[in-house]
Each structure stands twice: as structure tokens, then as C-alpha cells.
Design brief:
- This protein has 332 residues and is mainly alpha-helical.
- Helices cover 52% and strands 5% of the residues.
- It has 13 helices and five strands.
- It starts with 9 loop residues before the first helix and ends with a helix.
Length: 332
């Protein structure tokens, strides 16, 4: 048999067709796994939820702050009136004479009401003229001098030492500031100002400018409510009798404010003779010889004590009250 000769180019065409098959298979694309889509979706969901949660939380906090401010503003007037009555009540003043405090006193009473150090003011009793407050505070404890490292056994000794050693007198500061405007908040600010300054700096302050420039009302520390928070809440200098100016000083201020002439006062007030059992026996007129003799004869002197009944209208009463009689009754 005769073999046909191969056609030229036949083998080459077949080899080319076979070589194209693998190339066609290599061009096929693999699909993206589904878990990648889930991961992206979860990531964006987390971002959106975090944004929403943060926005809602901020709105809630803002509303809470608004409500708190409204509640604080509503109770501010009552709190101010209560603290003001405590201050002015130490002189047994009539409530009608209590003047409305300014913004400084307002903020001061608000600061004091949020600290336990001033809870002792709750012990104040208007009927005893502040003696219950003085008795509830231990002013006999050891306290440090404001201008040195010296410690003394009581607040009274400390005031006397500062006046003798450093020429620092609280009554002089009251005169510079203004006796009529002086209150317990001024006293607490002054003690806090000097305590935070430290003994050395406070002593240097005394050696510098004049007293009017150091402690005048233009000094910014008188309006700094941060000074109402004491360095030591048990500092005897904070609640010593000098903080309230004493009964005599306060009475003198009350007379000066009302324009009462002490020389024209007469002893026509009411006096009650009370025995030790608390029973009221009679009410004679003070200054009347018959009334005085009757009350002395009817009640044994060693078993009685005199009590001055001061009416609510203090200005009218002080016009007819002898200052010497006030001192005698107060000592008795």
C-alpha cells in the first residue's frame, strides 16, 4: 500500500489546538467568599451603632444637667433665706429686717450647703442668741497660728498671740471691710485665704502693703467661693466667738444701723421674774420702784434669775431699753 505523505502544516495545527486548551482553563475567575461580605457588614454596623449610642447618651446627659440646674435654681431662694436667717438671727433681729443677700452671699450659701463641714450650723437656735452654736463647736482645741508654726491651746489664745506677735487683729479687719457687711462667710473666707497661703507667705503679706490694700473689699479673695471649703474643718478659728463678732459688737451694729441714740433709751421694757422650775410668776414694769420691790419681796432672791423678754420688734424695743440693764440681765 502506498502511504500518503503528510500534508504540510497538519501536525502544527493539531499541536497548536492542543496547546490552547490549558490556556483557556487558566483564565477562569474564582468567586469572592461570602464571609468577607459578612465581615464588612458587621464592621459598618458596629460603627453606626456606636455613633447612635454616643449621640443618645450625650442627649440624655444634657437633659439631666438641665433638670438639675432647674431644681437647683428653684431651691436656691429657700436655701438663701434659711442661711441668711441663721446669720442675722444671732442678734435676735426681727425677720422683717433681714435684707436680701447679693449674688456673692447667694453662691456662698449654696457652696456651704454641699459640705459636711457646715452641718454644725443646723444646731443654731434663734431663741438663745447663738449660744447653742457656740456650745456645739469646740473652740478650745489646739490650733496653729496663721502666721507662724506656733500652736496654742485654744482659739482665744491664738487670737491674742497673733495680735501681740504679728499685730493682726480681727476687729481691725472687720473695720476695714465694713462692720455692717461682715458675716460668717467673710470670716471663713479670711481664714481659708490665710491658711492656704501658708504661715511664711501670710507673714510676708503683713509686712507688705497697708492694711486697707491687703484686706480691703476690693481684694478678689472676698468673692472666691473656693475659700469657703476650709483647709481643716475642725479649725477652732473658724467657729470661735470672734467669727460672729460677739453679742455686744452685733448689738452695737444693730443700733448704729437703725440710728438709735443710746442716750435717750429709758428702762420701760418688760421684765419677767422666773423661778428655777420655769414658772412665770409676775410681769412688772422695769424701772418701776413698786414693781421692783413687789417682785423682790414675792420671790426669794437666791432662787430666782432675771430674764429680759425682748419683743419681736427689736428697733422699737431698743429705743426704750437701758444698755446697763441689758448687761445686768445678761450677766444674771
Amino acid at each position: 500500500m502506498r502511504r500518503t505523505p503528510p500534508v504540510a502544516g497538519m501536525h502544527t495545527a493539531k499541536s497548536k489546538s492542543k496547546s490552547k486548551l490549558p490556556v483557556a482553563k487558566s483564565k477562569s475567575k474564582r468567586p469572592i467568599p461570602a464571609y468577607i461580605f459578612f465581615a464588612l457588614f458587621a464592621y459598618w454596623s458596629l460603627i453606626v451603632s456606636s455613633y447612635i449610642t454616643t449621640s443618645v447618651a450625650l442627649r440624655v446627659i444634657e437633659e439631666i444637667l438641665k433638670i438639675t440646674r432647674k431644681m437647683g435654681g428653684a431651691g436656691k431662694k429657700g436655701l438663701l433665706q434659711e442661711c441668711t436667717e441663721r446669720q442675722r438671727g444671732m442678734g435676735a433681729l426681727d425677720p422683717d429686717r433681714i435684707v436680701e443677700a447679693d449674688s456673692d452671699s447667694d453662691s456662698a450659701s449654696e457652696v456651704c450647703s454641699h459640705h459636711e463641714e457646715f452641718d454644725r450650723l443646723e444646731n443654731f437656735d434663734e431663741e438663745d442668741g447663738g449660744s447653742s452654736l457656740a456650745g456645739s463647736v469646740d473652740a478650745s482645741g489646739r490650733c496653729q497660728d496663721l502666721f507662724s508654726d506656733v500652736w496654742l491651746d485654744s482659739a482665744a489664745l491664738c487670737w491674742a498671740h497673733m495680735e501681740k506677735a504679728h499685730n493682726f487683729n480681727l476687729q481691725d479687719i472687720r473695720e476695714v471691710y465694713g462692720r455692717a457687711e461682715w458675716d460668717i462667710y467673710c470670716h471663713i473666707r479670711l481664714i481659708g485665704y490665710l491658711r492656704r497661703m501658708g504661715p511664711e507667705a501670710a507673714n510676708a503679706l503683713l509686712q507688705g502693703e497697708s492694711r486697707e490694700l491687703r484686706f480691703g473689699r476690693s481684694n478678689p479673695f472676698w468673692t472666691d467661693d473656693d475659700l469657703l471649703i476650709p483647709v481643716d474643718s475642725e479649725d477652732p478659728l473658724l467657729f470661735d466667738d470672734a467669727a460672729f463678732g460677739g453679742d455686744e459688737d452685733f448689738e452695737q451694729d444693730a443700733h448704729e444701723q437703725e440710728g438709735v441714740d443710746r442716750s435717750s433709751c429709758t428702762s420701760t421694757s418688760t421684765e419677767a421674774i422666773v423661778n428655777e422650775d420655769g414658772g412665770k410668776e409676775q410681769k412688772p414694769e422695769v424701772g418701776s420702784p413698786s414693781a421692783t420691790s413687789t417682785s423682790t419681796a414675792s420671790t426669794p432672791q437666791p432662787e430666782t434669775r432675771k430674764v429680759c423678754v425682748i419683743p419681736a420688734d427689736l428697733p422699737q424695743a431698743t429705743r426704750n431699753l437701758d444698755p446697763a440693764l441689758i448687761a445686768e440681765l445678761r450677766q444674771g
